Write a sequence for this structure.
């Protein structure tokens, strides 16, 4: 246990910052000192941003996204194509797809993937609302944007079965060579999938 | 400009987090999502810690340290040896020395090093209070814990001159091989200093 370098208030700030992903014990000290030095320019606005989010953020009742409004900013965005519903495991996946900028669709966040070993069964996921949304009639295509992991693929199969009688097209993301990826670093499964799904040049 | 992945409140949180040292644009998103998910366990306590520090932290009038009390926690700590005064450039250096745990002394934070090119002269540093403290009569030794850089050494020489007639012992940190360091990665200057300052085994 190293001795405290400052009063208990600053020590507590350092300890809390060390729990933020991306910051370790050492970088938390650097971050704390920077925040203290830039308290007007950075700490005060950050405290304000926390205040905006704290107590206001909630899980969207329609899609499971996290936002300060419910329904969330994505659900109330009327410029999005309502006929395409993208199913993701987590809010972080929704954010990643939005960053890619290749979609202008609505989302549905399952809140995880099926994982019997971790005790996550269908009842733990946001599936009832998904079926209800798809039954609503507006959706024409459900894109299962789930990870290419065992849990992700198990979940994809389960959702496909669940939506079998809904009369919607169910699609999944393509497998293939990552953009910028070098062939000899890729695993055999990815290469085989890329060969099978080859397209004309 | 990527499109926003969430409402403006969460986007603003991400943008502010990206300005924290140690977090980049991508890790700021991960940090923001983690903070939102753990809003009760992490964001609320962090907001509280900000509140404890904001508006209360100030520069210690005695030593130049940053703390929520003035004089600071280090200056009011009566278990510390008042006869040893450690001069550092920045609060981060004070923190680093405290982590080492090898000192139980008082500190004096200059607030930088002399750097004519950056317009930092003696008047920009916390030197008047240093001379006053040393003239106070309690201090027996002044340890100049300044970086082994050109600016750090220039500052050390300047402070030594400044304290020449004060009747105190002025010392500096030893140069040598870093603990855990391998010889063939070390620069010649460090090796030469380590040889000159060799000690009996």
């Amino acid at each position: 246990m190293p001795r405290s370098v400052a009063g208990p208030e600053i020590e507590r700030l350092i300890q809390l910052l060390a729990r933020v992903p991306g910051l370790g014990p050492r970088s938390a000290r650097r971050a704390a000192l920077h925040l203290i030095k830039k308290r007007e320019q950075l700490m005060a606005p950050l405290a304000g941003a926390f205040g905006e989010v704290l107590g206001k953020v909630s899980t969207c009742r329609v899609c499971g996204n996290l936002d300060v409004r419910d329904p969330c900013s994505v659900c109330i965005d009327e410029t999005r194509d309502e006929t395409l519903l993208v199913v993701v495991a987590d809010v972080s996946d929704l954010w990643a797809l939005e960053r890619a900028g290749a979609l202008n669709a609505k989302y549905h966040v399952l809140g995880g993937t099926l994982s019997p070993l971790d005790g996550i069964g269908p009842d733990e996921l946001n599936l009832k609302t998904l079926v209800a949304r798809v039954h609503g009639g507006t959706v024409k295509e459900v894109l299962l944007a789930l990870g290419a992991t065992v849990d992700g693929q198990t979940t994809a199969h389960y959702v496909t079965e669940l939506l079998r009688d809904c009369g919607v097209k169910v699609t999944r993301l393509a497998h293939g060579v990552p953009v910028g990826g070098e062939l000899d670093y890729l695993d055999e499964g990815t290469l085989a999938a890329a060969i099978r799904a080859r397209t004309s040049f």
Notes: The mean pLDDT of chain A is 92. The first helix of chain A runs from residue 8 to 17. The domain at 8-53 of chain A is CATH 1.10.8.420 (Helicase, Ruva Protein; domain 3). The two ends of chain A are 62 Å apart (CA to CA).
